[in-house]
């Protein structure tokens, strides 16, 4: 009996047909998963939280990323800092579990080595007079905030092209003053699928009409592609109406100095993969709610108009929707080849009061339903890709072009790292 030849990660990537999905083993194999974590989550900028996770000095938010763990801290000067969650003595985790806490200092639970919020070692007993505490500060992690988003990079030298995301998104987020927000609700769900399938699902709305009745009440799937072939006269007229409404909304917004145009940095040459656009919302054009009107009457920042649509941003593992009344920010972190944690937060103005300024059910019902529906879709797709009968099919050039683009970018980033 001949031996079965196991393809390398590179051979699997190279076997993908242009314009087609990825081979199933790229979603299911442990070695592929480990390479993915190393390249896409340990070497690139990743979203790990929001500024409202750490609103006060001494607040910390701990995030696990593969075998790595990062502590996000608000220091005494209200700066956002990040450190490796590793004691400089014998390596114990300082924060024993992921999540939020409030501390005066960072104390290792093993031998009580104590660190200030600036990372410096302040207390260590039985080390002798010749011990140099200054050489044992916590290991810093590169950190940047963009609007409410907290990004970190675990690499020694982070990708410099992140500056493009900062300069592009700053004017788009500015009217909403997202640092002056609080978390109205948060949701964490483990999806039974590979992180790449989570992101493929997020980057297309081909599936939306049949699976997301709550989302499509306000979200226009045509924003992400429309194929006129074989469509009815009513459908074609509907698309023409959509184009006219988009043009009118954009003209109206731009008169107020709002940035609207799509901007993409998605090709193989970039490290920081992102896209943004101000999208029209159906109906009242106010918010992603069931009636398309604001769920929170206390609008974000200095915003006075309710009908500002949706400032949309996606990254290689995250997605954001900012409306006049609230923001929805979500990110995916890989746990295993077939497990991905997705965290979603709903932000409102820091002074908004539940039951007075906003109704929590109205605020959250669209994206709670959509997230649960997506989890089922991802799990079902992951299971199918692991079936021996699976053969990757073609992407739609009209509605799934970003998936082929993502696959090419994935290929290029791994190749750059020698995979």
Automatic annotation (TrEMBL):
Gene3D superfamilies: Naphthalene 1,2-dioxygenase Alpha Subunit, Chain A, domain 1, Rieske [2Fe-2S] iron-sulphur domain. PROSITE patterns: RIESKE. GO terms for molecular function: 2 iron, 2 sulfur cluster binding; dioxygenase activity; iron ion binding. SUPFAM superfamilies: Bet v1-like (SSF55961), ISP domain (SSF50022). It comes from the Bacteria. Its cofactor is Fe cation. Keywords: 2Fe-2S, Dioxygenase, Iron, Iron-sulfur, Metal-binding, Oxidoreductase. Residues 47-152 form the Rieske domain. PANTHER family: CHOLINE MONOOXYGENASE, CHLOROPLASTIC. Belongs to the bacterial ring-hydroxylating dioxygenase alpha subunit family. This is Aromatic ring-hydroxylating dioxygenase subunit alpha. It comes from Paraburkholderia tagetis.
């Amino acid at each position: 009996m001949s031996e079965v030849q196991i393809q390398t990660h590179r051979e699997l990537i190279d076997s993908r047909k242009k314009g087609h999905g990825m081979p199933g083993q790229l979603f299911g194999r442990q070695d592929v998963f480990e390479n993915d974590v190393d390249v896409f989550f340990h070497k690139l900028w990743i979203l790990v939280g929001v500024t409202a996770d750490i609103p006060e000095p001494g607040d910390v938010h701990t995030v696990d990323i593969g075998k790595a763990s990062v502590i996000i801290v608000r220091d005494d000067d209200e700066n956002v800092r990040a450190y490796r969650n590793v004691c400089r003595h014998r390596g114990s985790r300082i924060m024993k579990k992921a999540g939020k806490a409030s501390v005066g200092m960072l104390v290792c639970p093993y031998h009580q080595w104590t660190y200030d919020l600036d990372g410096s070692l302040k207390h260590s007993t039985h080390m002798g007079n010749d011990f140099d505490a200054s050489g044992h500060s916590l290991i810093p992690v590169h950190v940047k905030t963009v609007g409410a988003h907290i990004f970190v990079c675990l690499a020694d030298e982070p990708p410099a092209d992140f500056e493009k995301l900062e300069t592009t998104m700053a004017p788009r987020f500015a009217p909403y003053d997202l640092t002056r927000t609080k978390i109205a609700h948060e949701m964490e769900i483990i999806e039974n699928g590979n992180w790449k399938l989570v992101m493929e699902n997020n980057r297309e709305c081909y599936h939306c009409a049949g699976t997301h009745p709550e989302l499509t009440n306000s979200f226009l799937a045509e924003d992400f592609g429309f194929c006129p072939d074989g469509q009815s006269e009513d459908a074609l007229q509907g698309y023409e109406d959509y184009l006219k409404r988009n043009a009118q909304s954009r003209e109206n917004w731009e008169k107020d100095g709002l940035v609207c145009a799509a901007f993409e940095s998605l090709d193989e040459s970039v490290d920081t993969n992102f896209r943004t656009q101000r999208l029209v919302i159906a109906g009242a054009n106010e918010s992603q709610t069931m009636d398309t009107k604001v769920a929170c009457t206390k609008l974000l920042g200095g915003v006075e108009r309710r009908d500002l649509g949706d400032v949309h941003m996606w990254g290689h593992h995250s997605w954001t929707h900012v409306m006049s009344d609230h923001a929805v920010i979500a990110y995916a972190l890989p746990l295993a080849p077939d497990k991905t944690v997705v965290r979603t937060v709903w932000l409102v103005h820091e002074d908004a009061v539940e039951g007075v300024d906003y109704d929590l059910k109205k605020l959250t019902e669209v994206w709670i339903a959509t997230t649960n529906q997506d989890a089922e879709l991802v799990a079902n797709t992951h299971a199918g890709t692991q079936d021996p009968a699976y053969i990757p099919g073609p992407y739609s050039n009209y509605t799934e072009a970003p998936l082929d683009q993502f696959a090419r970018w994935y290929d290029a980033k791994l190749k750059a790292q020698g995979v």
